[in-house]
């Protein structure tokens, strides 16, 4: 053997060993230094701040060995444990290197907060190391973050592109990777750095939460991190309460603060803009001069001191004679005027006459058509939408957190009112089918219809249709809207005929059949079925009453859902009111979850053609004179008197897309309206409004309930429908056409007029779901609620209102906070009593802004309403050029 080669080999071996050994020691030294460094940091913070388990609990759980150690020791152990793992070594270096850098950077900025600069290293499982630090500008939003979050922290903190998120859900739930670092965390980071560099920036953010624990340490909060911390701790240690979460849950939700948007510069409108704003002011003031408002608000009339649930009325239909007053009323040019007595010449409740109304309407129409006004309003609306997006980006997590901390409440048990639903379509198709089958089984020999000179029993009707109960199914029933109904209001109405048979509709969905011995208007209904509006129904059907009661009991069972059913009065004869009232009273149709609206189909031309009426005045007489009679002398129609206590509104219904001629300033009076054409929408609006106005004034003066004007408007047709309702209506149903007029949309926003929108119904009739403006209106802050319109034709499930919310939430990504806000709006828009509203949405629900909110009842965070109120006030100040004055309370 060549010794030289052997020596060489030995030397190489020794050299390599030496290198290896020295490398090992160097390595170890570095590690020890790091360990020492970590410990020194630990000591430092221990010396300056007595720590609580709240902020350090994340470490000891890392390995079994650290279980019994003190928190500080535990932290060291955790690091050691991590160091032993070769797999994690490079990662750890990277983290700690990063940590050092950050630490130094942090110290540079923030010498005084060195005590808070804690490096937490946490081993969640064998391969993943989590690094979390608190109290510095690069802190993680939570100690016990998820593994994904850790991934973020070791990434360079390049700012994520600020994509405007359209909903809270997007930023909370849709955060799989990129979005994992919550907006809150980034915001905090931004503020901490900024706050020191530019001190005056602090004022902008002075309302940021200063979530300090007892030791003055900052506890970062972020809703999404709270969720994850729960799940992580659950995975590792079973159910272990998260002290941070618990700490926040203990706080009153009202104490949540939020990041206020302060992006509106001090805008000085140019002279032209000021001119536009003055025009808008004039429109708003016109509305104020028209709309009926109660002189004494319900909350002044009735102070609720008892916080318990309002007792249901044990005898809602009891009549106590009230006596007649001296009031005298007569129709003058289509409007009933009231006098103190028969001899008095002075109108007690003057109301704007038709010429004034149409003049004002034309003024509004002129304003909404002006190019410069349209442009400005459009800009304002877009800005409103952007502000809401920004609010969500900054505060969605806080909102969600506030919702979580409201005990007991969630979307399912906040009250929601179906603010727009037609009574004759209020059951779903399966319910109707089951009902028809059960009637056919149990009462086959009931005489139900008079047809072609003979009386037919239910069984005979089915025989004449060649149908048995067994044949019936939902498809045969064929009441559901489908694609054939789109833009075909007429076909939609035909869907009201079960099995395409008007006979079945007469029996089950209409009133004037034989069951209570009423004569049939079969010829009429045959005529009407081609023309009537949705929600068509007649009086006096026992079957319909039974069906209604079943729907009532379904509502009662759901407890948190209420409905405002619309039921038709046609104005063909005066006795309709008494018939309706006796149907309600005799069938005992009362529910704590239900109030009634009267809907008036705009069918003058149909009745005129049929010879039922001679002029439009006949219809007005038939509708309003009985109401004045019963108000002056309740004894004259006792059943109607008690029924009216549950009637909260008057609605106008029919196909708005029918062509019509826009009214001029000087229109014929209703008595002169004898031609065969249907008057325009705004003509109906004015006469209903004016008569209702004097009626309400009279009823209010006698201490009776009032009836608000709440027409269907803006579902289709001309924009002047929405202008007419803007002047006169309390709130409206639909309003989707507001998307076509930025000026009116802006005015509806400023006046906060309620819109009871039904996107699923629109989808069947006039507007595809994905084009529906609901989400846009909601973002902009219009006062919107969701409603079902016609569950029989549209919905598939037992809870149509929840179905409506559910689809909206899915398609438009509405968050739980959004849904609860919409539900709150619906209660606010509804006509339920002051006592019930107080119970449902909070004792002081009538106060403006966040003071009117009670998160314990509505599950709407204060933050949301504070934001809405803030933005609305800013907008009003702008329109009123800084001179807006705000009443403390909302308008009744
Ligand atoms: Zn409707």
Automatic annotation (TrEMBL):
Substrate binds at residues 422, 491-496, 715, 790-793. The chain crosses the membrane at residues 6-26. Pathway: Purine metabolism; IMP biosynthesis via salvage pathway; IMP from AMP: step 1/1. One of its GO terms (molecular function) is metal ion binding. Residues 42-74, 141-179 are annotated as: Disordered. One of its GO terms (cellular component) is cytosol. Keywords: Hydrolase, Membrane, Metal-binding, Transmembrane, Transmembrane helix, Zinc. Zn(2+) binds at residues 420, 422, 712, 789. GO terms for biological process: AMP metabolic process; IMP salvage. Residues 50-69 have a biased composition (Low complexity). The keyword Transmembrane applies. Its EC number is 3.5.4.6. The active site is at 734 (proton acceptor). Its cofactor is Zn(2+). The keyword Membrane applies. It comes from the Eukaryota. CDD domains: AMPD (cd01319). Belongs to the metallo-dependent hydrolases superfamily. Adenosine and AMP deaminases family. This is AMP deaminase.
